[in-house]
Amino acid sequence: MGEDEEPPVRGLGLTSQCQQEKKLVSAVSVAVEAILAQFSSSRTAVQKALSGDSAVNPSLGRLVLQRLCPALHSLLTDGLKPHQSDLIAGRRPNSAWGLVQATTRPPKTQALFNLQVRVCELPQLRQSRQRFNAFLLGLLTKLLDFWLSHLQSCSVLDAHYHPGSFVRLSLTACRPLFEELLLVLQPLSLLTFNLDLLFQHHH
């Protein structure tokens, strides 16, 4: 019980900056609760598996796309620099999808890299936001918390984010909040998802 109560207790000492970031984590929590509610009506293991299939249960796909994807996008674009400077490519726009590409380099993250390549190979997805959403749909096959945890250890964060961003602060002042985020997302890893990467395009 003590462990369950730890993040809120430590959260009381969050700085005013982290209080703003807490709203972003709360939005993710609300989206996760809505997704869990979709699965809770299923009685058997087969029904639960089918509940996570966007071809059989398109309402779940819409829920992920309209609630979870925007919440995570807001979290990960908080404090994101509008542009990046590159010695070869020069100045180029920054985006959540650019972050995905920068943090999914093999061999450490081969599964993430394979997913990123699959998304890139879908000609229907031309916009970076569409690709980011498709990547998140793919991450729900038990890779979401792995990517977020890996994100913290990436050397590219300084290049992508301002110091006051959620991701940068999650390494210091907002670390308890990041741990809370992982706890919020944990129940999703226990569910079976089979989401069409082109769900957004098809619907």
Automatic annotation (TrEMBL):
Alphabetized PANTHER family for the sequence: AP-4 COMPLEX ACCESSORY SUBUNIT RUSC1, RUN AND SH3 DOMAIN CONTAINING
SUPFAM superfamilies given in the database record: RUN domain-like
GO cellular component: cytoplasmic vesicle
Organism: Kryptolebias marmoratus (Mangrove killifish)
Protein name: RUN and SH3 domain containing 1
InterPro entries linked to this entry: Run_dom (IPR004012), Run_dom_sf (IPR037213), RUSC1_2 (IPR047343)
All residue ranges annotated as the RUN domain in the record: 59-200
